[in-house]
Design a protein that fits this description.
Blueprint (H helix, E strand, L loop, with lengths): L1 E5 L4 H12 L3 E5 L7 H11 L4 E3 L6 H11 L3 E4 L6 H6 L1 H21 L4 E7 L24 H19 L4 E7 L1 E3 L18 H9 L6 E4 L11 E2 L1 E3 H16 L5 E6 L5 E2 H12 L5 E4 L14 H7 L7 H14 L7
Parallel strand pairs: 1-2, 1-4, 2-3, 4-5, 5-6, 6-11, 7-10, 8-13
Antiparallel strand pairs: 9-12
Bound molecules: nicotinamide-adenine-dinucleotide and UDP-4-deoxy-4-formamido-beta-L-arabinopyranose.
């Protein structure tokens, strides 16, 4: 299939492009580079040994998207493009609603105009909020809004795609709810490259290992969990990428309609367990301090992954140790990420 990958220069997008290219798909990346660098696209070409079309365009720009669809005639779209920083979304809600909803509305409109009926959308475990206890199943009741505007954009986009699918019987949309993506390609050539001080646990630990940060701040050790720190379902980014390739296979059969799948491992690890795993992989102690709780953090979140296993034939294969080893290889080989 020929697949337009929006946000394909980003962390999950680059890893997914590699897997799609390995499986014989053609890939067209559309990314405005607001949170990524052109060298990431170069590395996708290098690792795959394939030519990959790249358009530095904003998905909110309807005319630019029409031009791309006219030229490339894609069969499907994977929509990664979006802003994703939780704290920033609290400070700049309009920017998040404009970019995340605007890009999706424009994209679906252009897909309709060009008769493209297949989309995979990057949703998030954040849509579950705190309504139900883990393991979280896809049919769980969802809250009206998430813990932050970023999360609410995911809830709203899911609803837009659900409504659109009701109105268009031949529309196929696979909503993938990612848990906590970690790790990097085993080559060490691509990986997560957060701008500024990392918000997320694994990038913060990695930067502490290479000496860019003094110590990890553990946000709370008084949660009702065995060691008092929060539990999350960390998933290797290459497993996640393979989940997208499995979703695309649904488009090769007859119409799949609207489907929703969790992409996680089904197993939760606490902050202290993750820190220990990184210490072992790094072969060094990683300094840390216990701080207060961070607003909005839930004690525990992990997936029930049985639906993806049954319907997509997909399961996460890589361990927490793989995530740590691969992340560290990327971080050590590229201490400044993709550079300036
Ligand atoms: P990322 O920031 O590395 O990648 C997103 C890419 O989209 C970036 O390259 C950015 O430049 C691009 N982009 C943003 N807005 C754009 C626009 N309007 N037009 C064109 N390009 C645009 O993030 P990621 O971690 O790879 O996440 C990919 C998707 O997965 C996002 O939608 C994110 O919300 C979702 N997600 C991520 C996580 C996570 O923890 N990383 C978890 C759940 C869901
Ligand atoms: C994990 C645990 C922190 C940093 C976020 C988004 C979610 C999704 C994935 C996009 C928590 C603790 C963290 C640090 C710490 N993204 N922590 N010190 O919050 O589960 O999920 O990323 O959709 O929407 O909310 O991930 O990596 O930020 O935190 O102690 O410096 O690590 O408190 O318990 P989170 P995280």
């Amino acid at each position: 299939m020929k697949i337009v990958v929006t946000g394909g220069a980003g962390y999950i997008g680059t890893h997914t492009c590699i897997v799609l290219l390995e499986q014989g798909h053609e890939v067209v990346i559309v990314d405005n580079l607001c949170n990524s660098k052109p060298v990431a696209v170069e590395r996708v070409r290098e690792l795959s040994g394939k030519d990959v079309a790249f358009y530095e365009k904003d998905v909110c720009d309807g005319e630019a998207m029409r031009e791309i669809f006219r030229k490339e005639k894609p069969d499907a779209v994977i929509h990664f493009a979006g802003l994703k920083a939780v704290g920033e979304s609290v400070e700049q809600p309009l920017r998040y609603y404009e970019n995340n909803l605007g890009s999706t509305l424009t994209l679906v409109r252009v897909m309709e105009e060009f008769g493209v009926k297949n989309i995979v959308f990057s949703s998030s475990a954040t849509v579950y909020g705190d309504v139900e206890n883990p393991p979280l199943r896809e049919d769980a009741a969802l809250p009206n809004h998430a813990a932050c505007p970023y999360g609410t954009t995911k809830l709203m986009i899911e609803q837009i795609l659900k409504d659109y699918a009701v109105a268009h019987e031949d529309f196929n949309a696979v909503l993938l709810r990612y848990f906590n993506p970690v790790g990097a390609h085993e080559s060490g050539r691509i990986g997560e490259d957060p701008a500024g001080i990392p918000n997320n646990l694994a990038p913060y630990i990695m930067q502490t290992v290479v000496g860019k940060r003094d110590k990890l701040h553990v946000f709370g050790n008084d949660y009702p969990t065995p060691d008092g720190t929060c539990i999350r379902d960390y998933i290797h980014v290459v497993d996640l990428a393979e989940g997208h390739a499995a979703a695309v296979k649904l488009f090769e059969k007859d119409g799949c309609g609207l489907r929703i799948y969790n992409l996680g491992t089904g197993k939760g690890y606490s902050v202290m367990e993750v820190l220990k795993a990184f210490s072992e992989a790094a072969g060094q102690e990683i300094p840390y301090v216990i701080d207060g709780r961070r607003d909005g953090d839930l004690p525990e979140s992990y997936a029930d992954c049985s639906k993806a296993k049954e319907e997509l034939g997909w399961v996460a294969k890589k361990s927490l140790q793989d995530m740590c080893v691969d992340s560290l290889r990327w971080q050590r080989q590229n201490p400044d990420g993709f550079g300036e």
